[in-house]
């Protein structure tokens, strides 16, 4: 009954935009942002907003993922122009003058320094700042760098209130003064960033789509209650919870659009053109990004012209192709993978594992630490049907979470196979037969509105219950995007379906993310997973998977690096660490009056500044 009441309200609302308006752009999507804090956000819904509101020092040039152009810096550093020095360890960025933040404050080199340092010191759990730590300092987190500097674990350094213990306080202050601050320095009109060692992907990591390198207004941030820029207070601002961040629902960038409103009740973001934008004001004066989970509503909005573009799952594209007022861009190459993740150590308080034990009404929290439990799920997925029938051919199978197009991709590696007999056999072996004897029950979650992920979850439910009638019960649970993110990041979901789009075009961004104990997905996969990949293995020559991943990332010879990635992936496949579902191709749909659109696989959505509308 509730659902029936919602749709007419939406219909009345979006009819306000029914007449063609060349200055208003409406985008109907499937989920609202998670947060607008650039140093915490790590999802495409948030990233698209941040991409249009904030700016970085440099940007990708056109459709390239390897060429750059200046943005808030006036030049892209190169060895040739003398702005890359010390054998690739020093980058100099001349900062553009005459740029203003949305509140009128002028951009200064000090804003750039503050933005990088605040992000590095904040470094929230599950956030994107590991990339800057890795690129600049060669470690994967603030805590790792701090422990290295102090010589003690974080638990020993800080007391329960989060304050450094007396004997370590000066060391914690010196950590900022001697490690963080010297790495990002203002020199006249330039900002100089010094890397601990050369890292070839550094410019990719800070280019425009990477909002973790967006430039903030120092003065406003301090007024809002963020880090005050002082060495003896920085730890008070680390790991601030999402909702407690002053930037959670507030934004003040230099980009072509200002945040006008975030209506949480309607899941609607409104952006207004920045009329003082340094490159000149945008042609589109108002952008509305509206989360509409129901496909039928999004489709009706596009067909009537009440939306200019919508999110469309590939299985629905054919419903639009006969409409002469809609343009469709299909089979665009991506650097992305969709992967089914197992949580090897679920939060015991999770509502997604039922009773939490083997009694037919749940599973123990560590159920998926058993390889046969993981293999049973892998064998219950009809991969060919998923790609051909659900994705309509707009995707391809990949052996691991490394997409085709990057170094290390090896098409000769084996693929998991759909087989109901194997599902039964693996279930009978799981936990020495306990799973089969006592029965299991758990939930698979996906973000609401994502039909492809929903079909994968339904497929696993159907085939596992078919292979083990009366012994397996699976619930398929749709969650709104922010709730899905929170539940996965809190380690509550035993099986989840996730998509990873490249933060930067390098194999380490996928291999580290999915398979390293410090990767972004590590918390979602649990402590048992972390222990497994960080423990030395005989089959890896006495090294841990973590060690091999680090070795591959720092290897400079492409051929040697490729061999290491093949070894890593063989181990991953043999142990069914996670299940790669497909590498998608991208599809975008617009009204034909939308002009100026181009595609770059590194962009987290639309660049509204480049768009205009013309009938």
From TrEMBL:
This protein's record includes keyword tRNA processing: no
Keyword terms of this UniProt record: Signal
InterPro entries per record: Peptide/Ni-bd, SBP_5, SBP_5_dom
Residue ranges annotated for the Solute-binding protein family domain, each copy included: 67-520
Keyword Lipid biosynthesis belongs to the record: no
Superkingdom of source: Bacteria
Annotated signal peptide: 1-18
PANTHER family associated with the record: ABC TRANSPORTER, PERIPLASMIC OLIGO-PEPTIDE BINDING PROTEIN, PUTATIVE-RELATED, PERIPLASMIC BINDING COMPONENT OF ABC TRANSPORTER
UniProt protein name: ABC transporter substrate-binding protein
Protein species of origin: Fervidobacterium changbaicum
């Amino acid at each position: 009954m509730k659902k029936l009441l919602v749709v007419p309200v939406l219909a009345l609302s979006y009819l306000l935009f029914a007449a063609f308006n060349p200055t208003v752009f409406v985008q109907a999507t499937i989920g609202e942002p998670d947060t607008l804090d650039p140093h915490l956000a790590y999802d495409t819904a948030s990233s698209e907003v941040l991409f249009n509101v904030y700016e970085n020092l440099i940007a990708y040039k056109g459709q390239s993922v390897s060429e750059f152009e200046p943005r808030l810096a006036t030049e892209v550093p190169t060895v040739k122009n003398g702005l890359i020095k010390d054998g690739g360890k020093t980058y100099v960025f001349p900062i553009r003058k005459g740029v203003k933040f949305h509140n009128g404050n002028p951009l200064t080199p000090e804003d750039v320094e503050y933005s990088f340092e605040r992000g590095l010191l904040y470094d929230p759990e599950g956030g994107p700042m590991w990339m800057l730590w890795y690129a600049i300092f060669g470690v994967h987190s603030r805590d790792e760098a701090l422990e290295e500097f102090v010589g003690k674990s974080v638990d020993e350094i800080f007391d329960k209130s989060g304050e450094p213990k007396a004997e370590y306080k000066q060391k914690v202050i010196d950590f900022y003064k001697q490690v963080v601050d010297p790495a990002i320095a203002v020199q006249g009109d330039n900002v100089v960033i010094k890397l601990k060692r050369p890292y070839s992907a550094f410019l990719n990591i800070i280019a425009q789509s990477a909002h973790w390198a967006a430039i903030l207004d120092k003065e406003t941030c301090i007024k809002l209650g963020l880090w005050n820029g002082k060495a003896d207070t920085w730890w008070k601002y680390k790991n601030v919870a999402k909702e407690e961040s002053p930037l959670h629902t507030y934004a003040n960038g230099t980009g072509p659009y200002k945040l006008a409103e975030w209506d949480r009740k309607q899941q609607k973001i409104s952006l207004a053109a920045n009329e003082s934008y340094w490159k000149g004001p945008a042609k589109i004066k108002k952008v509305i990004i509206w989360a509409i989970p129901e496909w039928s509503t999004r489709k009706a909005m596009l067909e009537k012209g009440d939306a200019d573009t919508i999110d469309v799952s590939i299985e629905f594209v054919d419903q639009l192709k006969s409409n002469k007022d809609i343009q469709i861009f299909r089979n665009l190459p991506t650097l992305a993978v969709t992967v089914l993740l197992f949580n090897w150590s679920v939060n015991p308080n999770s509502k997604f594992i039922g009773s939490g034990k083997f009694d037919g009404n749940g599973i123990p929290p560590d159920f998926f630490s058993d390889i046969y439990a993981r293999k049973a799920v892998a064998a219950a997925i009809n991969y060919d049907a998923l790609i051909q029938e659900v994705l309509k051919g707009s995707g391809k199978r990949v052996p691991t979470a490394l997409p085709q197009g990057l170094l290390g991709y090896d098409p000769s590696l084996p693929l998991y196979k759909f087989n109901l007999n194997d599902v039964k056999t693996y279930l009978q072996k799981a936990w020495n037969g306990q799973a089969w004897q006592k029965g299991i029950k758990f939930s698979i979650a996906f973000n609401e509105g994502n039909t492809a992920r929903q079909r994968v979850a339904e497929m696993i439910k159907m085939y596992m219950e078919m292979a083990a009638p009366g012994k397996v019960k699976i619930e398929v649970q749709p969650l709104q995007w922010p709730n899905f993110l929170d539940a996965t990041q809190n380690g509550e979901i035993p099986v989840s379906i996730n998509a990873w789009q490249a933060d930067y075009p390098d194999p380490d961004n996928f291999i580290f993310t999915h398979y390293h104990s410090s990767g972004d997905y590590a918390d979602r996969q649990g402590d048992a997973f972390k222990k497994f990949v960080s423990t030395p293995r005989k089959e890896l020559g006495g090294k841990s998977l973590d060690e091999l991943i680090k070795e591959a990332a720092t290897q400079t010879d492409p051929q040697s690096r490729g061999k290491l990635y093949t070894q890593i992936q063989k181990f991953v496949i043999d142990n069914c660490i996670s299940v790669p579902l497909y590498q998608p191709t991208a599809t975008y749909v617009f009204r034909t009056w939308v002009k100026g659109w181009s595609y770059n696989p590194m962009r987290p959505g639309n660049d509204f500044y480049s768009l205009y509308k013309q009938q």
